[in-house]
């Protein structure tokens, strides 16, 4: 069997039996490296060099966590929740009636979608918004698996379809790597090509909302760090400063594309203004980094995993093996290419990192099989996006877990990865396959 396939299967099986994802990635990379022909020394060396690529991501998420907890300390998230409740409630009415489930779901979905295109902060909004809402969601009996699928949809579908914010980066990545591989395309073609695959994700979202997780689920009312009692009563000055800190962070993120410096600038505004006291900074930063540390370590491990898989050359042999099975059958070819994309992305955890790897192999194969440029775009874009929704190493699954598990009642694999895999990856394969055949 192919080294990438073995490595990914081992990683997924270990994760499903509740072995820590970081350990699962390291073990999967080690086995995959050895099966792929690398020595023990080479596997360790390549993995160690690869993890360095994830250091910036890990630091970014750690600082974003500190920024999020600092903002929570100002009382702004609690104020937002209280205002939402007050806006839709009657005097004396319990919150279970005042804040219907549909309002929570629509609000989280809207903010998740905007985080990719309109205000491109990606997962930075999650530790700000979700922990303060956990007690409200508990009162409403909302299944957190539903919220995980809603957030993951918002983090993934917009950049696949729309050429704005992170979508522009994703579309540029597709176009650039397809041209380097021998097929120049117009950027305007990508939204057209990705419309059908995105429809598959919409179908999966509707199934999750109206069928899979419609019934209430009970959770214990546990105190979340810096929630309610620990957050100070926000003053007008604190409110203005906090909003300015958020705006400053967004501006830095948009201009310099750096989550590290955007978080530092936001924290600096809060500390310099006195809205957050310097004496509290150590505890706030520690709490924030602890909340986001899991994401950072998984992303670091995923970079090492990807480096080992690339070094083995197993991705190319996987595609060549698929090509031998395809022959001249376009339907089989499209399906096998999507499955290869799923395997690669599930291990790497990033659609952005997967596209350059698969484009160089998929473009010549697609041209040989006679796929149109639109169909080729659909294959590469869908194959890249497949694992982003269900991979244990993807920030599109790690982000929702970081917020929903703030009180320790949400499992990353079974409550985020499995639901998002079932509701998005299966429809993506089906609708991506249809797109490749009809475009």
From TrEMBL:
Pfam families tied to this protein: Na_H_antiport_2, Na_H_antiporter
Residue ranges of domain Putative Na+/H+ antiporter N-terminal in the record: 2-86
PROSITE patterns for the chain: PFKB_KINASES_1
Keywords carried by this UniProt record: Cell membrane, Membrane, Transmembrane, Transmembrane helix
InterPro entries xref list: AA_Transporter-Related, Carboh/pur_kinase_PfkB_CS, Na/H_Antiport_NhaC-like_C, Na_H_antiport_N
Transmembrane helix found in the keyword field: yes
Subcellular location(s) of the protein: Cell membrane
Top-rank taxon: Bacteria
Transmembrane segments: 7-35, 55-77, 98-115, 121-140, 147-170, 190-213, 234-252, 258-276, 288-309, 334-362, 369-387, 421-438
Domain Na+/H+ antiporter NhaC-like C-terminal: 150-433
Membrane topology per record: Multi-pass membrane protein
Record keyword Iron-sulfur present: no
Protein name (record): Na+/H+ antiporter family protein
Lineage of producing organism: Bacteria, Bacillati, Bacillota, Bacilli, Bacillales
């Amino acid at each position: 069997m192919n080294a990438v396939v073995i490595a990914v299967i081992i990683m997924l099986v270990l994760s499903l039996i509740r072995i820590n994802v970081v350990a699962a990635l390291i073990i999967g990379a080690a086995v995959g490296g050895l099966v792929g022909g690398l020595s023990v020394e080479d596997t360790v060396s390549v993995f160690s060099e690869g993890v360095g690529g994830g250091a910036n991501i890990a630091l970014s998420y750690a600082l974003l966590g500190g920024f999020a907890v600092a903002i929570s300390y100002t009382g702004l998230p609690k104020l937002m929740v209280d205002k939402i409740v007050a806006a839709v409630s009657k005097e004396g009415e319990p919150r279970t009636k005042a804040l219907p489930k549909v309002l929570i779901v629509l609000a989280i979905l809207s903010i998740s979608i905007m985080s990719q295109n309109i205000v491109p902060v990606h997962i930075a909004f999650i530790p700000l918004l979700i922990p303060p809402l956990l007690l409200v969601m508990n009162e409403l009996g909302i299944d957190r698996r539903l919220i995980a699928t809603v957030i993951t949809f918002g983090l993934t579908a917009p950049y696949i379809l729309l050429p704005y914010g992170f979508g522009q980066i994703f579309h540029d990545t597709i176009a650039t790597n397809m041209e380097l591989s021998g097929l120049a395309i117009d950027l305007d073609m990508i939204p057209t090509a990705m419309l059908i695959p995105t429809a598959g994700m919409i179908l999966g979202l509707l199934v999750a909302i109206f069928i899979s997780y419609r019934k209430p689920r009970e959770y214990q009312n546990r105190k979340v760090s810096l929630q309610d009692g620990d957050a100070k009563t926000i003053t007008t000055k604190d409110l203005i400063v906090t909003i300015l800190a958020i705006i400053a962070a967004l501006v830095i993120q948009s201009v310099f594309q750096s989550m590290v410096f955007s978080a530092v600038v936001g924290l600096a505004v809060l500390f310099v203004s006195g809205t957050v006291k310097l004496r509290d900074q150590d505890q706030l930063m520690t709490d924030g980094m602890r909340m986001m540390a899991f994401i950072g370590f998984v992303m670091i491990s995923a970079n090492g995993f990807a480096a080992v898989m690339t070094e083995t050359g197993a991705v190319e042999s996987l595609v060549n093996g698929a090509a031998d099975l395809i022959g001249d059958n376009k339907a089989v070819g499209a399906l096998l290419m999507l499955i290869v994309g799923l395997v690669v992305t599930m291990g790497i955890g990033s659609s952005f990192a997967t596209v350059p790897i698969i484009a160089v192999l998929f473009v010549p194969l697609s041209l040989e099989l006679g796929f149109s440029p639109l169909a080729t775009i659909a294959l590469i874009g869908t194959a890249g996006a497949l694992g982003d929704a269900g991979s244990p190493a993807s920030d599109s699954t790690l982000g929702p877990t970081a917020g929903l598990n703030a009180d320790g009642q949400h499992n990353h694999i079974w409550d985020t990865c499995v639901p998002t895999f079932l509701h998005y990856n299966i429809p993506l394969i089906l609708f991506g396959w249809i797109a490749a055949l009809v475009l």
